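Internal ticket - ligand job 306, L-homoserine:
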Amino acid sequence: MKSFVKVTAPATIANFGPGFDTFGLALDQPRDTIELSLDVYETQIETVPDYSIPTKKNAAFAAANSIAWKNRVNAPFHMKIVKGIRPGSGIGSSAASSVGAALAMAVAMDFSAKDDEIIQASSLGEKMASGTAHIDNVAASLIGGFTIVASRSPVEVLSIPPEQLPDFEVVVALPDMVLETRRSRAIIPKAVPIETAVGNISLSSSMVHAMMRRDSAAVGKYLRDELVLPYRRPLIPGYDKVQKAATEAGALGVSISGAGPAVFAISDGGSKDIAKSMESAFKSAGLKSQAYITKPGKGAEVLEVS
Ligand code: HSE
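stdout (structure tokens):
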């Protein structure tokens, strides 16, 4: 057993347009850093900055414990999570912490966990955070690049590594509001007309084709969604304005990141103008926001073991 492990796990864009609960894209930035220490007397999880989440209600607790129990170990641990990713912003904050926690615990226990075991453990963190054990964010945060959940049970994830993806930039605009995933899942209808389902199957299949032939313009073209976006759009003040502004500034495509409220655009140039246009559009809807530019990135990494 190791006494200290430090890992990092990236923010992610779940759904990526038409792939509800299926597609995920790992971002180069921001990332959470998780430090796990095992030579301690009491289990405690601290977040930096302090988000005052009780240890046993932290998604990371559920994920780390799942790996520990799998190994029949019940040792206390201390975890410090440096949150680069703002909780409730829609870019996979709980997923990154859960993946980091599960991976750190597996490394600490010399348990050579397979990806599907880390994803399964991390999904318990997602369940704690949002009420549903969806795995699109955790899969992308662990594996990196563009990920496709081929099966939820048993877990099977397909992926395209970042270096094989089209060369687009991602502009992410984070409005100053929190939107609980639980809430934006609750408004989704339980059934949809067959035409809607067929439309999304077409879009999502075309999206995978566009990714594989490394065509950024086509990725932007298929970055649409009729399944959940129409219901979620009203939960994000100014979404339509932001979408229009980013498109006019040259974005190839725009959508909601995961359950929102983050909105993202992809571009093959002019990202700074797109970022500014998204911030101004949010401002005109009465919301402050911060937009930043990043790229598709690698998955979780182990930084230190002792
Ligand atoms: N696929 C999930 C959703 C992601 O859209 O609800 C939540 O981050």
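Auto-summary: The chain is about 35% helix and 25% strand. Residues 164-294 form a domain with the Alpha-Beta Plaits fold (CATH 3.30.70.890).
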